[in-house]
User: Fold ATP-binding cassette domain-containing protein from Pontixanthobacter gangjinensis.
Amino acid sequence: MADDALPEELKGRFVDEFPIVVEGLVNRFGTQTVHDNLSLEVRQGEILGVVGGSGTGKSVLMRSIIGLQRPNDGDIRVFGKSITEAEPDEEIGVRSRWGVLFQGGALFSTLTVGENVQVPLKQFYPEISKELLTDIARYKVMLSGLPEDAADKYPSELSGGMKKRAGLARALALDPELLFLDEPTAGLDPIGAARFDQLTRELKETLGLTVFLITHDLDTLYEICDRVAVLADKQVIAVGTIPELLETEHPWIQEYFNGPRGRAAQASQKRDKRKAATSSSRSMDNRPPKRA
Ligand SMILES: Nc1ncnc2c1ncn2[C@@H]1O[C@H](COP(=O)(O)OP(=O)(O)O)[C@@H](O)[C@H]1O
Ligand SMILES: [Mg+2]
Assistant:
């Protein structure tokens, strides 16, 4: 729905409720059509998982939303401001309200982690003093679960998981309301991936973020996503909770969530839930756990 068509009193509510609204998006590269009339609404305060086969246009969708990819057609609004009508460097007052962790991390290799975090700060707040920049960067590094001294290290000195956290620290530099994560757990071992998921969830809850999370990781979808959007056939073919998606007939959705890996992720989540339930009932009745 175009926001302009709404009555005045509803406009604010619509914007508050859906910080991202994509309508009728079309993206083409030469003769290849990646998106054809794609629409999507992201709700305030949710972690929206975005899934789809390789090359279905997840990253292109994210780049369109943040204005790095100019679509052939359609309308994209972030916090009610049109991204599609604005020039890439035009000041529309929303670019400082989001943070992005690109696929692969994309840290500047010649800068330390701290200096990487300072890049967006310097861009949007050139007046901040050097001391304050250093302090803010250190704080963001720690917020991302890295030791304080990681701020002085170069990306090449970090493990894969630490690099992701450094990228996250940079994405959080401007205290964003919206966080874009493009395959943040790809390439991490299962423990590192689970820790990163946990961190994402905690940050979302403590900072009140809305998170647009592209992922292939079924565990991530089950563990931390409030809803999942499925990209296939050049569109978002379904958005909902995983149980809602399981009710749809689409073959890709069925194969993805009900295939062997999907079932394993489902089973592991059920086990975790049971474990959590038994440990909390034990602590409530104060009796020592029975031995099997
Ligand atoms: N700048 C570009 N120029 C030409 N083709 C591109 C460009 N960016 C992406 N594509 C193509 O668009 C399709 C979707 O890409 P992408 O969004 O990166 O997929 P994924 O869903 O794996 O993130 C791919 O076929 C890719 O080759
Ligand atoms: Mg991608």
About this structure: Confidence is low (pLDDT under 50) at residues 281-292. The CA atoms of residues 160 and 187 lie 7 Å apart. The chain is about 40% helix and 20% strand.
